[in-house]
Fold:
Amino acid sequence: VDGAIRLALSWTALESTLPVVYELAARHGVLVLDAQAGHVAFPREDLTRGALQMEDGTHIVSPTPEVLESALRSLDGQNSFAILARESMSYMQTASHDDGTFALEYQEGSLDEHFETAACSLDDVIRAFQSYARDDDAWRTAFPWVRMEL
Structure:
C-alpha cells in the first residue's frame, strides 16, 4: 500500500505506544488500522486520551467521543462497569445500578484522591467520560464531588 507505515507492537508496549501512534496519525491526517482488533480509526487532533476497559473485556485505546457513547450505552446487567484510565492510578469509572442510575467516580494518582458523586443518569455519565477523555475540566464542575475514604 502506497503511503502506509506498518508497525508490529508487542502487547507489553501497546498501552504506552498506541497513544503516540494515534497522536502522530492525528497530526498527519492518516488512518490507523488495528488489524488484531479489526478496528480502523481516523484520529483527530481532538482525540481523547486514555484507555476504556469494560467488564466484558472490551479494551479501547484513545476512544473517540462516539465510541465512548456507544460503549457506555452498552452497559447492562452482564456488562455493568466501565473504566477510562489515563494512568494506573488516574481514572474515571462508572457502574450501573439496578434502578437505572449510575455510580460515577474518579481518582487522581492515589487512593487518597478518590471521589464520587450522587447517582446520575447515563447521559450525565457519557458527558462526564467524554469531558474527562478530552482532558477539559467541565466534568469537574458538573457534579458535586465528595472524597471517598478507601
The chain has a mean pLDDT of 84. The helical segments are 11-28, 65-73, 122-134, 138-142. The CA atoms of residues 23 and 45 lie 7 Å apart. Residues 1-47 form one domain.
